[in-house]
Write a structure and sequence with these properties.
One of its GO terms (molecular function) is translation initiation factor activity. The protein is an alpha/beta fold and about 290 residues long. The protein contains 7 helices and 11 strands.
Length: about 290
């Protein structure tokens, strides 16, 4: 009597993902610009996969779609045209998966993931990643998760796909961290200027210095047990600070501010000249 075999095909367990901040900003921007009838945004992730299984997500673009209670339809032609155009600019960035806004994996994800798995395979990648971004920033926190899928099949017939979360590394520079914190507020009157951004950075540095001062004071007074690793880190940080008198520091800071003002003035002057040139060109065409 022949037996039917239930097969489980796991994805590589060593897979991890790394995402660039520009991808998150692009996804949130696409969500803000979405059509009124759409509840979420779906798009393509571009990047590369290293030999050790790290999926590096470097870029993305939204793909128009329509969905109902029981189906999701992607504009595949638009996706292929966008990918072809992107390949002409940066051929090293290939399809590594897809993203959707919302909290976690939702209905219909298996079918979309199957499509992007084929696209990633055609691009030379072993696996595809599914990135979910909670654009509502529930409780002021951004839930960004990465998933890969495992296939469950009966004999040669696929039955279902199981998603499981993989580690996601998201590293930001200080300027990117400030922008991401503003993004989490969901509602702001205006974007901060360079000076306001510098002020926020200085306030954060001051807060960190206060924390270090409190820790050192607690260690000296015997309220906290000393940690050699923290001590070495503080010593290395202090040694990396250049020795500079207050007068010299004020001069360097003021010179930097003057340079920033000069750049702002030149940029404003350039915008004015371009606007005048555009109006003159329009008037010449009318005449």
């Amino acid at each position: 009597m022949a037996s039917t075999v239930l097969q489980f095909h796991p994805s590589p367990a060593s897979s991890t993902a790394r995402i660039q901040p520009v991808v998150l900003f692009s996804i949130c921007d696409s969500y803000v610009r979405r059509p009124d009838q759409s509840d979420r945004v779906i798009g393509t992730l571009l990047g590369s996969v290293s030999a050790d299984g790290v999926i590096d997500i470097k870029n993305s673009y939204a793909v128009p779609h329509s969905e109902s209670a029981d189906q999701v339809a992607l504009d595949i032609d638009y996706h292929h045209n966008m990918y072809t155009s992107h390949q002409k600019v940066n051929p090293k960035e290939v399809i590594v998966g897809w993203y959707s806004t919302g909290f976690g994996v939702s209905g219909g994800s298996a079918l979309i993931h199957e499509f992007y798995s084929r696209e990633a395979t055609n691009a030379g990648q072993i696996t595809a990643v599914h990135l979910t971004v909670d654009t509502s920033f529930t409780n002021g926190e951004a839930s960004v998760k990465a998933f890969v899928s495992s296939n469950l099949s009966l004999a040669d017939r696929p039955l279902a796909a199981q998603f499981y979360e993989i580690p996601l590394d998201m590293r930001m520079l200080e300027a990117e961290k400030i922008g991401f914190d503003i993004l989490k507020m969901t509602k702001v009157d205006k974007l901060p200027t360079d000076l306001e951004g510098m002020e926020a950075s200085m306030e954060r540095v001051h807060s960190l210095i206060e924390d270090v001062y409190k820790y050192v004071d607690d260690v000296v007074e015997g309220r906290v047990a000393p940690d050699n690793n923290i001590g070495r880190f503080i010593a290395h940080t202090l040694a990396s600070v250049p020795k500079m008198s207050p007068a010299a520091f004020d001069k360097v800071l003021n010179d930097k501010i003057q340079d920033n003002y000069a750049l702002v003035y030149l940029a404003s002057l350039t915008r004015t000249q371009l606007s005048i040139a555009e109006k003159l060109n329009t008037a010449a065409q009318i005449l």
